């Protein structure tokens, strides 16, 4: 099947933008990726992935060698693009719960002089509701073109970024006229031909879909984590509980994984920015519950810390502790707001001798927290440990043989902060193992 080809610009080439650029190129479009980071642009142009994301290495290499995918730091390169996707980051503003919108505004200033007269600017970053209209106002001041704005939130999960971009669960487009709707439908023709649902909405709804989806997911995780606190006190098993309630199709089992909670570059900062925006709208009480969601989530990290202290007889000082996992989730090298690293840093600051292992994220972790000790070899990381913490559920950790691992550590004690290990197998091998809301029988 052949689809219409488009001239597309992607502004911001991180996990979201770089993957979107390569998938659009794979679909035959001419794609230019614009980023301010020269090093990242050079790598991408050589077909090298600047981050770890399954399937992305092959995809970027193929796009570059096919010749219809290029990256640049030169904003004039977007002057022939019919569609310009804004994919820059909106991290948490330092010292505030609000989103830091500086990358959005500088991207708009950067591209405005180069937009061609009928370009459609498509927002894809996660933003406070109302941003699209503000972008439009700023663009009208900065340029004399007829360019319009649409919003097209992304829902990709790191670790599944390529899959979620090629075949998302749904495509949401917020548009202001039927021309823009047709342009976006044409760009997404390959996806729409696979019967992926399309929702055409207004700008504000499109912006809200993303933040409310993330708020709901965060709430689901914090709900099950609150249940895990109750389970710990009552001797119940939160994993069995999640299985049982998850079988109700109105609830569903996904995102009921109790443990050290959510981290990463999205969920934590998105719920905080949403709370902040609600305050600006005079609706603080509507999202009051999200504060609790955030608190429950952060409390999981405290719980692991205090269980660790208990297992080590009241003090972690001088104790050799192995932390399994540095990435905020498996199949990613992203360490932004990683619960695992947060706990590791805390243990380290209380005087523990912490060694962190991760299959992919050690380089990023070491850049962020040079104070910790990192070990890429799992056996070496486990050597002489007085306590092991399983904090990111890489498959490799589920495959650890408790009998062999016991021979490496000094004291066979494990906290399963992701409730993924076989407690009985560990117990049978002579380990003391504790889950969050789950005890061995
Ligand atoms: C999330 C959204 O899923 C995605 O749609 C959005 O576009 C960006 O934010 P991501 O941050 O990649 O994606 O990770 P996700 O898989 O949603 O996990 C978020 C966090 O929740 C991780 O730290 C994960 O470990 C944690 N989590 C997830 C749980 O603690 N329990 C669960 O059951 C599921």
Q: Give the biggest sheet.
A: 6 strands, parallel
Shape-level CATH architecture of the largest domain: 3-Layer(aba) Sandwich
The shape is: globular
CATH class descriptor of the largest domain: Alpha Beta
Helix content: 40-55%
Which hetero ligands occur in this complex? uridine-5'-diphosphate-xylopyranose
Can you say what the CATH homologous superfamily of the largest domain is? NAD(P)-binding Rossmann-like Domain
Termini separation comes to 56 Å
Beta-strand fraction estimate: 5-15%
Can you count the beta strands?
14
Structural class: alpha/beta
Quaternary structure state of the chains depicted = single chain
> Using only CA atoms, what is the Rg?
23 Å
CATH topology of the largest domain, what is it called? Rossmann fold
Stretches where pLDDT is under 50 for at least 5 consecutive residues are none
Count of separate structural domains: 2
- Mean model confidence by pLDDT: 97
Count of helical stretches: 18
Order of the strands making up the biggest sheet: 3-2-1-4-5-6
What does this structure look like?
The chain is of the alpha/beta class and 441 residues long. The protein has 18 helices and 14 strands. The protein folds into 2 domains: 7-201, NAD(P)-binding Rossmann-like Domain (Rossmann fold); 215-435, NAD(P)-binding Rossmann-like Domain (Rossmann fold), CATH 3.40.50.720. The chain starts with 6 loop residues before the first strand and ends in a 6-residue tail after the last strand. 44% of the residues lie in helices and 13% in strands. Helix 9 (203-234) crosses helix 11 (267-280) and helix 9 runs parallel beside helix 12 (288-311). The protein is globular and about 70 Å long. The longest helix is centred in the middle third of the chain and has 32 residues, at 203-234. It has a 6-stranded parallel sheet with strand order 3-2-1-4-5-6, with helices on both faces. It has a 6-stranded parallel sheet with strand order 11-10-9-12-13-14. A two-stranded parallel ribbon has the order 7-8. The mean pLDDT is 97. Bound molecules: uridine-5'-diphosphate-xylopyranose (UDX).
